[in-house]
Amino acid sequence: MCNNQSFNTLITTHATVDVAKELLGYELIFYGPNGPVGGIITETEAYTEDDPASHAFNGKITKRNAPMFLAAGHLYIYFIYGIHHCLNIVTEKEGVGAAVLIRALQPTIGIDIIKKNRPNVKQKDWLNGPSKLMRGLTIPVNLNGTNALTSDCPLQLVFRRKPTSIQTLPRIGISKGMDRLWRFYYSDKTV
DNA sequence: CTCTGGATTAGCT
DNA sequence: GCTAATCCAGAGC
Question: How distant is C1' of B13 from CA of A122, in Å?
């Protein structure tokens, strides 16, 4: 898994907010039942333990957020608004609750499969939301708590390119912690 | 045990 | 741009 080396290094040596920024330009690949699907990460958000908007605020471990306290590289998938799922990559060492929310991808692998997964949706809307990418790639919820650093994980992250331009913005859909500009957007014209 | 609100999306105006 | 859909986790009693 030499491809994984740089992701492994990134996530085990950087703080959460830096990981969120650095993940832009990585390719997220899911080896699904119909073949590999994936895309370049174009938008992320950081959530840490001292962040009032985080599920892991104050380091409180619950049944739902427990995966956030696993070692960096694990996956945290949670259910929200009764219908949607969101994918996070756990950061920090074991025992510290922090993660990066993957908000958007630009489709690169398995275009035909993604198209089939997103009927009646315009291409630009296939994966441009945290729950849209779960559906578009058909990532199963049972990956929650698994380790994406192991080669047998069906979800892998591979470094592809470094964005020349990153936008830093307030996070979306939260009511606390608005002062933290922890949303990062890959703003290159050509991806 | 009950109640409330949410790291969202799709569809309509 | 505005709002309904829809259900679980967490907090309060």
Answer: 21
Question: Half-sphere exposure of residue A59, counting CA atoms within 13 Å on the CB side?
Answer: 5
Q: What is the pLDDT of residues A93-122, one digit of tens each?
A: 999 999 999 999 999 999 999 999 999 899
| Whether residue A1 has pLDDT greater than 80 | no
Q: Residues of A from 132 to 191 whose C-beta is within 7 A of strand B: which are they?
A: 132, 135, 171-175
Residues 20-39 of A with CB under 7 A from strand B: none
Q: What is the pLDDT of residues A139-179, one digit of tens each?
A: 999 999 999 999 999 999 999 999 999 999 999 999 888 88
Q: Which residue is nearest to nucleotide C6 (CA to C1')?
A: A82
Q: Contact A88/A99 with Cβ under 8 angstroms?
A: yes
Structure pTM?
Answer: 0.94
Q: Which residues of A24-34 are buried (b: 16+ CB within 10 A; e: fewer)?
A: bbbbbbbebee
Q: Å from A126 (CA) to B9 (C1')?
A: 12
Rg from Cα positions in chain A:
15
**DSSP H helical ranges for A28-158:** 111-117, 130-137
